[in-house]
Each structure stands twice: as structure tokens, then as C-alpha cells.
Amino acid sequence: xxxxxxxxxxxxxxxxxxxxxxxxGLRALTPAWRYPGILPDAIDVWPVISTSAGGRVTSSLLxxxxxxxxxxxxxxALGFLIAxxxxxxxxxxxxxxxxxxxxxxxxxxxxxxVWLQVAVLALGxxxxxxxxxxxxxxxxxxxxxxxxxxVFTSFDFSLDDEARTLGASRWxxxxxxxxPIIKGRAAEGAVLGGLVSWGQLAITLLxxxxxxxxxxxxxxxxxxSGNDQLGSLAALWMSIPxxxxxxxxxxxxxxxxxxx
Length: 260
Fold this sequence. Notes:
The chain is an all-alpha fold. Among the domains are: 68-212, MetI-like (MetI-like fold, Orthogonal Bundle); 214-249. It has helices spanning 3-28, 46-49, 52-86, 91-106, 109-122, 129-153, 158-165, 170-198, 202-208, 215-225, 228-256.
């Protein structure tokens, strides 16, 4: 395949990948798009944003942002601490911890959410933002533990041992030795944890009980009610963080000299 053919193939793949986003963007701008019209009747987005449903979408967007901003760094901290501990632990404990982290990742969200619902209700936090945050933290920490194990597998722990020999405390080892080395990967982990929280639907419904309205929950409600324009707009907003994360990953790999 020559270079020109490769360019046409890549252009076709890019168009195929971006076409759903383009359709969502166009539908978000149109109050009505009736069959058999190829183009929408009109373009006007303000009326649907100014409705009470638009206000609920904005509120749910803020709720999702808050949950992601809190869950991301917290799950990264827990995941990296767990990973740093188990990579040096005996094989049985390491395998058990990794199995539990993997279970939190691959378990069906609806089944896993039922178990989390029982635990959160026992704490008296059902239908609260705190309860939803704790529920989001479980799968996010599972993802981050697996991510951080890969980071620490190649980490030189002799630096840790030397610092402890020289009298450094555990906190000093983490803050002055380990973190300066892995801070880039820790930031990537925080973004990953935030994205895990951002996309949670089943767990949020089960724990939040319909009281805590995140953007995925509100999007589901809009789709069920037939509000296609506002639903398309909410879907676009949901797509923004993953797209930004891809951009940040591209910048990071470019600076580090890695290929993406």
C-alpha cells in the first residue's frame, strides 16, 4: 500500500470514528429533525438549555465534575499505596490483592453495585453524595492498583531502602524519593480514576437511589423521555473529558519521546 492510499485510509477511519460525534453535535443544535429531511429544520440550542431540564443537566454536570475531581486523586493515592506494598509482598498476598483489584474492574457493574449498595446502606449513606463517592472509589481504586503495579514493577526500590537506612521516615521516603520519580504516572493515574468515576451509571443509580443525579443518570433520563436535543448535548458533554485525556496523553508522550 503506497503512502497516498494510507492517507486516504486514515482519513476514512477518522471520518468513520468522528461521524457519531458530528451527528451528536448537529442534533444538539437542532430543536427538530423530521423525516425525510436530510438537513434539520432549524438551528437553535438556547431554548432547550433554558428549560428546567437544561437546569437539571447543568446541575448533574457539576455533580459529576465534583465526583471525578475527588475520586481521581483519592483512587490514585490508594492504588499507588496498595501497589507499592504488594509488589514487595510474598507471592500469595500479591496474587490475592491483584485478583481483588481485577474483580473490582471486570465484575458486572449492576452485580457489583448491589454488593456496594448493601455496604453503603449499612453505613447509612444511601442516597447521598458521600455514599456515591465511596462506591465510585472502589472500582476506581481497582483500576489504579492494576495501573500502579505496572509502574512499580520496574521501580528501583533500592532507593527506598537507602533512604530508610539514612533515617528517613516513611512519609519522607514517599514525598522526597518516590513521588518525584513517579509524579507523571501518578498524574496519569488521577486522570484515569476521574474518568472511571465520570462514566459510572449502574453503581450511581443503585447507591444514589435517583437522588444523586450525575450526568450519566440525567442522560439516561433524557433518552427515556425522548428529549433528543438535550440528550445529545449531554452526551457531548460526557465525551469532553475522555477527549481531553487523550489530548493530555498525546502531549505527555510527545514530551517523553514515546510514540502514540
